[in-house]
Amino acid sequence: MDAGLEAQIDQWRGYVRRHRAIAASDVDEMEDHLRGQVDDLRATGLDDDEAFLVAVRRMGALDAVSREFAREHSERLWKQLVLVPGADDAGDGPRWRELAVVLGFAVGAGVAVRLGLTLLPEDVLARFVTFLVLPFLGGYLGWKRRIGVRTVLAVVAPAVVLALVLALYPFAAGGSTEVIAALHAPVVLWGLLGVVYVGGRWRSHPGRMDFVRFTGELAVYVALLALGGGVLVGLTAATVSLAGGDLETVMGEWIMPFAVPGAVVVAAWLVEAKQAVVENIAPVLTRVFTPLTIVMLVGLAVVLLGAGDLADVERELLILLDAILVLVLCLLLYSISARDPLAPPGVSDRLQLVLVGVALVVDAVALTAMASRIAEFGASPNKVVALGLNLLLLVHLVRAGWLGLGFVRGRRPFDDASRWQTTYLPVYAVWAAGVVLVLPPVVGFV
């Protein structure tokens, strides 16, 4: 299909999935139906735009959603074709059943973490803490999307293999490979969670972009819950302290083990139920933090370039640079996922292009520093992993910058830049799996 038509379908899909009256598990089926309608109409001689607009109009079950979409995008032909008189939605009513399921999974995650704190040694717990939380988050998303047995097996089987590897590998206590494996296992699990989120359709570009959007929105809601919960707990602890009591033990052994994992599951429910709210927040967040991040990266680049011999740059600084580059990538992904794919290039797109350019400079300096340290002091598991991650980021950012430049100059559709992001994302999960499974035995589990 034409790239412009794909962008319109992506926008339609995003709008439909944000509508509370339509279950997320039904969106893929509805998109297939829409595409079939478009193909049939194109076969009759209509062009892409005409076929798309008529197909949306024929989606009888979506009349109310289409009317809302037309009101929000009144500058398009949607208004003439689908803005017809009709009653507004009556609302969903109470959703007690879903709330009960969410609370059940949240409490289950808290119980799992509490048992882990009681039964597992500290080093083992560090390796398995994500295994105690993400299955419950995946359980809620799987229940929400009514995933089939094949999808469950496709996710559970590699997760079990990963857990056995972390449990059976003879890691040196506190060694580099143990820490590296503990840091990369959550990346693999998050990739598997993405398979659950898209209902097993992991090859779907719109589905993967939905998961990117979900990840960003989840981070927003977790941060909001953490801030609100922190204020509430702080006020409670202060009140108890003034009354002569002490909540420190209860806080560490009971409140936090249940509150933190529970907040993740509840945040996922809020994302699913209140997506339109974050949809309004996302553009604001990206417009605020993109220029601030550019300033920060420019400052880092100046500091690094003025540091003299890059081989003398502290290892901790290089690790921090990797973390910052990953955050920059997350900001870029979230910005792209929150953008209207049909809107023309604007100031925010040019700022993102600048962000990618400055990030490439920082990444190139970091790569040079790492190569210099390896040449002077020899290789180590940490250096090899850091070097590999920076090479992955370099490829990702170079291609993203090239496609972004083409879009800003009007030579490429936005869909090209968007598809590159979701196409490349699985590479990180495969890389993380390789780091966990292959690196430790190769270097002797040091």
Key phrases:
membrane, transmembrane, mainly alpha, 446 residues, 0% strand
What's this model, at a glance?
The protein is mainly α.
Number of strands: 0
Helix content: over 70%
Rounded to an integer in angstroms, the radius of gyration calculated over CA atoms is 24 Å
Give me the strand/helix succession. HHHHHHHHHHHHHHHHH
- Percent strand equals under 5%
Query: Which whole number gives the mean pLDDT?
Result: 82
Number of helices: 17
Main pleated-sheet profile: none
* N-end to C-end Cα span: 51 Å
Integer tally of domains: 3
Structural class category: mainly alpha
Shape: globular
Unreliable parts? 69-93
Write the layout of secondary structure elements.
Elements: H1 3-17, H2 24-43, H3 48-58, H4 63-72, H5 78-82, H6 96-119, H7 122-145, H8 149-168, H9 176-197, H10 205-242, H11 248-273, H12 275-305, H13 315-337, H14 347-377, H15 381-408, H16 414-437, H17 439-442
Helix pairs in contact: 1-2, 2-3, 6-7, 6-11, 7-8, 7-9, 7-11, 8-9, 9-16, 10-11, 10-13, 10-16, 12-13, 12-14, 13-14, 13-15, 14-15, 15-16
Protein name: DUF4153 domain-containing protein
InterPro entries: Perm_prefix_1
Keywords: Membrane, Transmembrane, Transmembrane helix
Describe the protein:
Keywords: Membrane, Transmembrane, Transmembrane helix. InterPro entries: Perm_prefix_1. This is DUF4153 domain-containing protein. The chain has 446 residues and is an all-alpha fold. It has 3 domains: 3-82, no CATH class; 98-271, no CATH class; 277-412. It contains 17 helices and no strands. Helix 15 packs antiparallel against helix 16 (414-437). It is globular, with a radius of gyration of 24 Å. Residues 69-93 have low confidence and may be disordered.
